[in-house]
Amino acid sequence: MSVKIRNASPLDLPVILEILNQSIRTSTAIYDYEERTLEQLTEWFERMILDSMPVLVSEVENEVIGYGSFQRFRPKEGFRFSVEHSIYLKESSRGMGVGGRLLESLIQRAKEQGIHTMIGCIDASNRGSISFHEKYGFVEKGYIKEVGYKFDQWLDLVYMQLILKET
């Protein structure tokens, strides 16, 4: 299986929307309740491009099977060297190494943009994602109990960090 990572284009947005909405409906990987519309996703995509933030897709045999992005961790100017990343895959594409390829590409883009640190905010029950991030050098830096609520339960959040440049 040959996985290609490339910049997303507006033509990819319907598939990205499908992948995102699947996660919203079925998982605590994202704490949103309402599925996004194509209009909302298009606005997000255009804002990401204007802010020079990457949106990458993974393809196998010309089929988009996942996407990843990062954006400033918090809106204050002092946080401009810190980003929070997200990776979402089609359910059928998990466990095939696609997420790792996307994360490696996001890490490379962050380095190229002079980013100092990447942060992953992960639902604490998602041990697979925590282990995945540890494999790429991310270290757990915080644990917040009952900070989210979805599917009639309180959710804990784990913050994981990867320092890209040593000071």
Automatic annotation (TrEMBL):
One of its GO terms (molecular function) is acyltransferase activity, transferring groups other than amino-acyl groups. Residues 3-165 form the N-acetyltransferase domain. Keywords: Acyltransferase, Transferase. CDD domains: NAT_SF. InterPro entries: Acyl_CoA_acyltransferase, GNAT_dom. SUPFAM superfamilies: Acyl-CoA N-acyltransferases (Nat). Transmembrane segments: none annotated. This is Phosphinothricin acetyltransferase.
